[in-house]
Input
Amino acid sequence: MIIDAHQIEEDSNIEADVCIIGAGPAGISLARALVDTGANVVLLESGGTKVEEAPQELNEGVDLGTIARQGHLRRSRRRVVGGATVLWGGWCRPLDAIDFEARPWVPHSGWPISKADLAPYYRRAAAVLQIEPFEAEDGTKLKLPGPYILQESEPLVTKVFQVSPTKDGRFGKQYLQPLAKADNVRVLLNATAFELQASENGSTVKQIAVGYLDGKRISVKAKHVVLAMGGVENARLLLNSNGHQAAGLGNQHDVVGRYYMEHPWITAAGGIVIVGSPPVYQGFGKEYHDYRSWRFPALAVSDAVQRRDKLMNFRARLEPMPTGPTNALHQSIGQTAAKFVPNKTKRPPEYFQIDVSSEQAPNPDSRVTLAEKKDLFGMPQAQLDWQLTDFDNRTIRDSLALIASELGKWQVGRAQNSIDESDPWPLRTAGACHHMGATRMHTDAKQGVVDADCRVHGMSNLFIAGSSVFPTGGVANPTFTIIALSLRLADHLKSVLGNT
Amino acid sequence: MKRRTFLVSAAVLGSGAGIATWVATRASYSPAEQAVLSVAEQLADDPDVVLVGKAYLEQTDAETDQRALIEQLAESLPAVKPVDESGAGNESVIQQVQADFDEGRTVMVEGWTMSVTESQLCALAALLNSGS
Output
């Protein structure tokens, strides 16, 4: 059933077994997984079925940090069924096994679960996103068709990405109607949760304060509450839920909002010119379409090199430059390199722009806090202070240097690195709008907000879904992992519900 | 006009003393150094190589001396051979360029990672092209 909140009487109280706050990829996936349980589920969505101005106003906030990004909080998020998937390019890939490890050279790294724990959920998430499984049950890994380099080579490797057909807003549209038809699910649209009201000792969420844009207030009481509002909003709501706990719920150790991460993204971080054979670069800059899926490769640094050089995860996407660079010297570099390779190709030098994205180290000083300005529900806006470090930048610089070195060793071309220490984060640096880490997962309540089951430490009935629970972010786009974690949380909730 | 043709013409048209100096200088080079010079002379006819060589020279102070560059290159390219008229690539140069990458003997030119050997050859070609 779909209900617009304006149809509900003022001060109504809605009861449910499970209340999921947020109808983005996490919340929708979780609700779908609970359809067959018979549990009474309420799914709250702050927006409607279309992107409209008024709910977006609630995304306004204060953007601070290493890189000035005025308006990022509003631009990068959507209050609408489907959430940020309406902005999403559909890129899917699981995190790598190394991303889950506690790596001594990456401060605060390590998940309390492994990739193997998530493997079955990744397969189910692939079905949700209508893509091929990246790894079948028998261990067979997804590959790209045709000859191309670096299937399993070192020190550079290929990471395969798939593009989900549920991108561009289709995710929400596709999955809303089945939820609407489910007997046990009520979807409340234009219903904004602005405070979790807890028991006096802060151990249980008693009810959720919900507002409609016209100022009407209702409340929801649920046995179990799941925050699925997005990487920033999950932390914001916890911080604002300070009726009995001054620092906010789940924040007894001042961890909520900290360790905020993104994937730093630098367009034109470098260039590549290919002049020699064999065509080891084949496939990069290309996309493969078949009747099942749309795939593309990214150039990445192997696990072994990450360990050896104490780097984090990194990926590069090569964009063909058919007309070559405009800079005369850069053109001459390619022509010159062709004189120093043994098997020059018959084609003129081929140029690619390197766009890079890398992992960011968890950093307690990179954080979401509450701003002074309040929204129409009286909830302080989010203040986002995205702090990058030299380690984050070194990963990019050293990885680009590795690409350049390998191209030379392979005798096929040369590479350029436009990032140097004097200007480590040039203006063309951005985040990939992947908001991660602000309610991170850790077994120790002093180092994380949720435990391995995504339950908020110290709280009996509050859970979090979404990329805010990621302790580290790897270089995979987060949506695929968000959905896998939601399906895993659904299994946990089913077991909990079965015992109550 | 090809660089070599130009040099010969200049020699013919130049003063006797000039010819004598040029011949004497040339004769003082070891076979490897003469081979390096031969490779660089051919590269000096290529405007792309010259442009890269100039960019490299602009960012380095230590290697702007032609004689020093020739000596360094001859040391790193002991097996280099004079290029023939077909302009076929010199195998030892290509091997050394790869060895440079293998051993991390690289330099950055405008952000591009190049082998030291190829950069020095480009620099020498640029110096020859400018007549210094």
